[in-house]
Automatic annotation (TrEMBL):
Gene Ontology molecular functions: pyridoxal phosphate binding
Pfam families cross-referenced by the UniProt entry: Ala_racemase_N
Record-annotated membrane-spanning stretches: none
Name assigned to this protein: Pyridoxal phosphate homeostasis protein
Names of required cofactors: pyridoxal 5'-phosphate
N6-(pyridoxal phosphate)lysine modifications at: K56
UniProt key word Amino-acid biosynthesis: no
Functional summary from the UniProt entry: Pyridoxal 5'-phosphate (PLP)-binding protein, which is involved in PLP homeostasis.
Family membership: Belongs to the pyridoxal phosphate-binding protein YggS/PROSC family.
Species for this entry: Leucobacter aridicollis
InterPro entries documented for this protein: Ala_racemase_N, PLP-binding_barrel, PyrdxlP_homeostasis
Keyword vocabulary terms for this entry: Pyridoxal phosphate
Domain called Alanine racemase N-terminal: residue spans: 29-249
């Protein structure tokens, strides 16, 4: 169920929990249809946009149903949870994308099982990953996370530091830069959300003008269940969609995004968000 928004407000969704392959198939089809409509509004081919289902907090038995419905790559925020799932579901051949902040002491685990890391925002993390990847004899696709909302509690590079950071990354030869990632501000105010996505696209284009190699393929990972259509209109090439595929989470968002929800972490009521 979706409540129709006022002008310039994102819709409020009531995401039902998928508990069968048929329900997952329907949810995925609905998301893909929304992706296609958003792409059509701005003259983009839907095939240019990757859907990354995010399975954080979802138990393994339901993740298996999603995989049976066609999910071949899944996103996770917490390394420990992702590691457990990658081991438990190893028989299914799923690729795992880490999309949450990385503590350097978890770099070995990420280097062992992840096919992609979308939240690179420090040279310490780059060095730790590179060292572990070199030892394992493998490489890793990475997106550089940018703090486009200028919220001090959020992870991600300040936009003004992006160029210098990107110019340092070639020394870490096991890391393949694929593009940029961001979390928009958590609000129902569509223009404010759109500004975050527009800024990431602008930064990508600016880096390409300076040196096409800085951002690799130039991908833009942006947009989640509440705002992915806006992200697509602003150029997203990957949307990270959890609740619209799996259903509403029982665990509060502050458990997975404490930097974005400091008020929840402190026990205060959450503010409005998509």
């Amino acid at each position: 169920m979706t409540k129709q928004p006022d002008a310039d407000e994102l819709p409020i969704h009531d995401f039902p929990t998928a508990t069968s392959v048929a329900e997952f198939t329907r949810n995925i089809a609905d998301v893909r249809a929304n992706i296609a409509r958003a792409a059509a509004r701005v003259g983009r081919p839907p095939a240019d946009i990757q859907l990354l289902p995010v399975s954080k907090t979802v138990p393994e038995e339901r993740v298996r149903l999603a995989i049976a419905a066609g999910c071949t790559q899944l996103g996770e925020n917490k390394v420990q949870e992702a590691k457990r799932k990658s081991e438990t579901l190893a028989d299914l051949g799923v690729e795992w994308s880490m999309i949450g902040h990385l503590q350097t002491n978890k770099a070995r685990d990420v280097a062992a099982f992840a096919s992609e890391f979308q939240a690179l925002d420090s040279l310490r993390a780059a060095a730790a990953l590179d060292r572990r990847l070199q030892a394992a004899g493998r490489s890793l696709d990475v997106y550089v996370q940018v703090n486009t909302s200028a919220e001090p509690q959020k992870y991600g590079l300040p936009p003004e530091e992006l160029e210098a950071f990107l110019r340092e990354l070639p020394q870490y030869t096991s890391l393949r830069v694929r593009g940029l990632m961001t979390l928009a501000i958590f609000t129902s105010d569509t223009p404010r959300v759109r500004t975050c996505f527009t800024l990431l696209r602008t930064l990508r284009d600016r880096m390409r003008e300076l040196d096409p190699g800085l951002v690799g393929d130039g991908g833009l990972s942006m947009g989640m269940s509440g705002d992915y259509e806006v992200a697509i209109e602003e150029g997203a090439t990957c949307v990270r969609v959890g609740q619209a595929v799996f259903g509403a989470r029982q665990v509060p968002d502050s458990h997975y995004w404490p930097e974005a929800f400091p008020q929840e972490t402190a026990g205060a009521p959450p503010g409005p968000r998509p």
